[in-house]
């Protein structure tokens, strides 16, 4: 019979540090996907996973077994990823326009939407690039909330727990994310129809 | 008729809006709101979940390997005692350590002849500190360090994606560095009659040589062959077993406290 996560946690807290490897083996892949979706590359993803487990290890005494270890770890993973994105945004050499309505931005979008070639494949590639670009323009919390809802299929309740937000604040983050995406992608989507 | 707000439309696309029945009724009656709703739906449909490539098979191993040294108070022992006893006994015998010590003395002698003599500079405290170190501990630290570096290198090699462009110049330089020391350790182990350790170092020697001498434009097949060689010999596992035990032996006081705890 497989030892439960709770039993492994107790084992680690009792001094068997190597037992922590069981938790690493069990949960690495479950947090890999969401982190990779946010970072877009395996190197940063692996770095963040290490930080997640290190944080979990150091905080293990504070882990209250009201929620599952997986949920607790997922929450750490999301928050470490947000820390990473915030730090990345601070050091980003390409300034991200906070206001998508700015003149420059409008011009950029108009140029893109005005020049689709007849080849739909090319247009599809252009849309994908624009989506990536538009996602990067969201704040880290908006991007995370949208990703959790739209791509990971998490409920509002789960998102609010993971991000430590009230339910209406979580909804608002998703709304703002979609609103911004809509402003940036609407021209392209209508051309692609 | 009062139109739906943008927020209601967006949240309704996810099924998260309140008053769902009223919204549905309104959408059935108001073409303007219906059109806005369809536009948001279409836009969301165009944003497909980002495809995440499957991580490599040994992801957990790599994470643990990097993590274990960072865990507060982490001891490096990771394997069952029965296996350690069976596999490690020859390595930990004093005669092997003495042999390795001889290698180190030789290496120190050679190094001393050619390296700049910083120790002669006024104020340098290094010689006095070195003289105070336990010689056997020096050996264990050196061997442990060598095995750890070899292990990290092989992990990097094993995780290199054969589908993408292969650039291993950094790894090749590391392999060249490790090769000389490994050669000396292997000769010493052979001389002392420790076949299991000598065998492992011999396998490591060949793999390091393969990496070090690989052409600059290493192709997928070449890399695959090196990876297969490491995998088929269970080389990473063997290095890890020995390295783990060596680290334990490095610090007897830590070993004692661990034993007391258990």
Q: Please, how many helices of chain A? A: 9
Tell me the number of strands of chain A: 0
The percentage helix of chain B is: over 70%
Strand content of chain A: under 5%
Largest sheet of chain A: none
Give a description of the structure.
The complex is a heterodimer of chains A (193) and B (262). By secondary structure, chain A is an all-alpha fold. Chain A folds into 2 domains: 87 residues, RNA polymerase sigma factor, region 2, helix turn helix motif (Rna Polymerase Sigma Factor, Chain: A), CATH 1.10.1740.10; 90 residues, Orthogonal Bundle (Arc Repressor Mutant, subunit A). Chain A contains 9 helices and no strands. Chain A is elongated and about 60 Å long. The termini of chain A are far apart. Chain B is an all-alpha fold. Chain B folds into 2 domains: 41 residues, no CATH class; 203 residues, no CATH class. Chain B contains 13 helices and no strands. The C terminus of chain B is likely disordered. The chains are: A mainly alpha (193), B mainly alpha (262). Chains A and B meet through helix 2, helix 3, helix 7 and helix 9 of A and helix 1, helix 3 and helix 4 of B.
Task: List descriptors.
heterodimer, A: 193 residues, mainly alpha, Rna Polymerase Sigma Factor, Chain: A, Arc Repressor Mutant, subunit A, 2 domains, B: 262 residues, 13 helices, disordered C terminus
Could you provide a short overview of the structure?
The complex is a heterodimer of chains A (193) and B (262). By secondary structure, chain A is mostly helical. Chain A has nine helices and no strands.
What is the secondary structure topology, with strand pairs?
The complex is a heterodimer of chains A (193) and B (262).
Chain A: H1 5-13, H2 20-39, H3 42-58, H4 69-91, H5 103-114, H6 120-136, H7 140-151, H8 156-163, H9 167-192
Helix pairs in contact in A: 2-3, 2-4, 3-4, 5-9, 6-9, 7-9, 8-9
Chain B: H1 6-13, H2 20-29, H3 31-46, H4 59-68, H5 81-92, H6 94-114, H7 126-132, H8 135-158, H9 169-191, H10 195-212, H11 220-232, H12 235-250, H13 252-261
Helix pairs in contact in B: 1-3, 2-3, 5-12, 6-8, 6-9, 8-9, 8-12, 9-10, 10-12
